[in-house]
Design brief:
The complex is a heterodimer of chains A (490) and B (220).
Chain A (H helix, E strand, L loop, with lengths): L1 H6 L2 H16 L12 H13 L6 H31 L4 H11 L3 H12 L3 H25 L13 H35 L7 H10 L3 H16 L1 H4 L5 H11 L8 H11 L3 H4 L3 H41 L10 H16 L2 H12 L4 H23 L11 H34 L8 H10 L3 H28 L9
Chain B lengths: L5 E10 L2 E11 L4 E5 L6 H11 L4 E4 L11 H6 L8 H9 L3 H13 L15 H14 L4 E5 L7 H14 L2 E5 L3 H7 L2 E6 L2 E7 L5 H6 L4
Classes of the chains: A mainly alpha (490), B alpha/beta (220).
């Protein structure tokens, strides 16, 4: 059997590996349906979806503005910080620090800053700015490194002048394009911040769903889709300064913060008492105890959710990757396919998971569905753009045969590359979905904050970050072993 | 399956508003093997394209860029010649696990073409000549009446090219093959169509042509 496995195509081997891992972990996953009649609830949701309510449009417009404000100002500051960091990215310390900060989800950052700054503008901005600045640092550094046709400058020109006059201008369009793409991501992050109480669209969505006011929820979702779908019409470079002024004005107020409390939080609150007292044995005991009783089960469940979602995303991508491609169907079905993929990839996992939780109850199933739908929507969209450029022979088969024999084998390596890039994202989201009540890391972190056990929260957040760094390096190794190209994808 | 003859009566071909093939009148009855000769860009591929459109269901096509799927094995690529004979479910099953009877048939074909050891290898690990033989195997496996090939033997040595052409002609009632090898055109084909600048300049039995006449096509 091993001899046979060695003969398998690297792509088939990679796929089998992903599916087998999920199969092995399956016994530890709670996939029960708790809601007795998901059909009835779904019916009410659908009814709400087709009759969006305009009764609170003023509040929602304001919430949309705050959502944009967090994203725009957050990305703005992050880009300003990211550039100098990118220039220092060859230092190992900077690289490691950025990888670590980036590995902590925006929502976890928000939970941390909320303890110090409360539900204020600065919490929202910091939660977006910190991880985004570190992502910018990494990707900007990659972009700048990839620039080879530089303007010749007099020899002996100093490094900073060289960057300003030659490297950065040459890379400018790539830098702007990536920053733009991240702004779209930041809009989603910003909306999601509402789930922990900040006044963005997510807050109103959370409330509307929780109270079963589905017509209201529909309005919010449509507003959110409209914001993202019309991005290319309203996000003009010349208008950004105007938007920034409006956004600054729209930000919620930040209550005064006492520097001493900020200091106390990071030097005392997040460390176990034994450690602060200098009781090393006690501290070690505490850490060991937390690792065994809380961290291990939390990490276990996070891994189970991650791997099952990864496998589900893989299968669903294979099922969906023909949607919206010009190689199949007619213009009407292609537009419809594009619409479905757009809806899947622009709805944040958190919102999808929230809806599915209402339908199926608090098992792992809603989270897997949400992660698989969102990610396969994104990967299929990227895949369909490659599919459009595949040149087929004159006598190529049609329909399912065309997809399975001509298209899929050709685009599969790219799909797998995207999937492995999403692995880290899926892991981060698996952890964060715990906030909705699934027993992954996010659940334990959220509860620790609620119980004012900041020492435990800090430990778990660090563990979630390390887990991410680990998966990231594992994915890179797998990509290399399967002979897949490195891509740039944030 | 009754064998139609391929007939063109004044059809032409344009690409992005520019005529790449002047109106052609041509008939290829069953039983006749025709060579298309001319420089690159003379219109051979365009003429084959037009011919294919006349009777797609009777034709096994062997396009110039081989039209193979690099990540699939030689077996799967050859099997693709019969995709239209089975339902999609049957084909999907074959993709996961090859059907035994097809595997045996393809193995036999691969033995004939000297691909026997490569049947499970992905096509993009093969040499140019092996890929070309895979493309021919796919066309043969289609078991159609007419073979249309666009330089199907350009990447193999002359001796092998001759054997392959003979095999193709033996398996098909009629064939139209574009090629550069003038000697092969004269010895293996009943009839030769010469093309120049997107026009048919002659259409004669090969017995009435000489190598010098064919060489004329390659002079500017």
């Amino acid at each position: 059997m091993w001899h046979k496995a060695a003969q398998l195509h690297p792509m088939a081997r990679l796929t089998l590996l992903i599916l087998m891992a999920a199969l092995v972990l399956l016994p530890w996953a709670d996939l029960n349906l708790y809601q007795v009649e998901p059909g009835a609830e779904l019916g009410r949701m659908m009814q709400g979806l087709v009759s969006p309510s305009l009764s609170e449009i003023d509040t929602l417009t304001h919430a949309s503005l705050i959502t944009v404000a967090f994203a725009l100002i957050g990305v703005g500051i992050a880009a300003l910080l990211g550039m100098p960091l990118a220039l220092l990215f060859h230092f190992r310390v900077i690289r490691g620090l950025c990888a670590f900060i980036r590995a902590i989800h925006e929502l976890f950052w928000a939970l941390i800053f909320m303890q110090v700054f409360g539900l204020s503008a600065i919490t929202g901005l910091l939660a977006i700015t910190l991880p985004y600045a570190c992502t910018f640092a990494k990707v900007y550094a990659e972009i700048l490194e990839g620039i080879d046709n530089q303007t010749p400058l007099p020899s002996g020109t100093d490094k900073i002048s060289r960057w300003c006059y030659s490297t950065i201008p040459a890379a400018w369009s790539a830098l702007v394009a990536y920053t733009r793409y991240r702004f779209e991501c930041a809009l989603r992050s910003s909306a999601i911040l509402g789930f922990i109480g900040l006044p963005t669209l997510g807050f109103h969505l959370d409330t509307a769903f929780a109270q079963g006011v589905y017509d209201q929820a529909a309005t919010i979702l449509l507003l959110f889709f409209a914001l993202i779908a019309t991005l290319r019409f309203w996000l003009k470079p010349a208008l950004v300064p105007v938007y920034l002024v409006v956004c600054l004005w729209a930000l919620p107020e930040t209550p005064p913060v006492y520097g001493s409390y900020f200091w106390q939080f990071f030097t005392q609150d997040i460390w176990p008492k034994a450690l602060l007292l200098g009781d090393w044995i006690g501290a070690l005991n505490w850490y060991a105890n937390q690792l065994v009783s809380v961290a291990m089960p939390a990490v276990g469940q996070t891994l189970v959710l991650t791997q099952l979602s990864l496998a589900a995303t893989c299968l669903l991508t294979v099922a969906l990757a023909w949607l919206g491609s010009r190689q199949f169907g007619n213009p009407i079905s292609q537009t419809l396919g594009h619409g479905i993929l757009l809806a899947l990839r622009s709805t944040p996992e958190m919102i999808l998971a929230f809806v599915f939780l209402l339908l199926f109850g608090p098992s792992m199933l809603p989270a897997i569905l949400a992660l698989a739908l969102h990610n396969s929507g994104l990967i299929s969209y990227l895949g369909s753009r490659i599919t459009d450029h595949v040149k087929l022979r004159q006598d190529a088969p049609k329909g399912i045969d065309r997809y399975s024999y001509e298209i899929l084998p050709r685009i599969y390596p790219q799909l797998m590359t995207f999937l492995l890039y999403r692995w880290e994202v899926i892991m981060r989201e698996s952890a964060i979905l715990g906030i909705l009540g699934i027993t992954t890391l996010g659940f334990y972190i959220d509860s620790a904050f609620e119980d004012i056990r900041f020492d435990r929260a800090a430990l778990l957040i660090v563990i979630s970050a390390l887990l991410n760094v680990l998966v990231d390096s594992l994915a890179r190794r797998l990509r290399r072993r399967a002979g897949l190209r490195e891509l740039r994808m944030g | 399956m009754a064998q139609p003859s391929l007939t063109l009566s004044g059809e032409s071909l344009s690409y992005e508003g520019e005529q790449v093939l002047a109106p052609v009148t041509l008939s290829i009855p069953p039983g006749e093997h025709v060579a298309l000769v001319g420089r690159s860009g003379a219109g051979k591929s365009s003429l084959l394209k037009l011919l294919y459109q006349q009777a797609p269901e009777h034709i096994a096509l062997c396009p110039q860029s081989y039209g193979l799927v690099g990540n699939l094995s030689v077996y799967q690529n050859v099997y693709m010649g019969q995709l239209n004979r089975h339902n999609p479910l049957y084909n999907l099953c074959n993709l996961v696990r090859p059907w035994r009877r097809h595997k045996a048939a393809v193995q036999q074909l691969c033995d004939t073409l000297g691909l026997d050891e490569k049947i499970n290898s992905p096509v993009d690990t093969l040499s140019g000549g092996q890929q070309q033989r895979t493309a021919i195997a796919r066309a043969l496996y289609q078991q159609a009446g007419i073979f249309l090939g666009d330089e199907p033997v350009s990447a193999v040595d002359p001796l092998q090219a001759k054997l392959l052409i003979e095999l193709i002609q033996h398996q098909h009632a009629s064939s139209v093959i574009a090629l550069h090898n003038r000697q092969l055109a004269l010895t293996c084909f009943d009839r030769i169509v010469g093309l120049q600048h997107g026009k048919v300049v002659f259409d004669l039995p090969s017995s009435s042509l000489t190598a010098e006449q064919l060489d004329q096509l390659y002079v500017a």
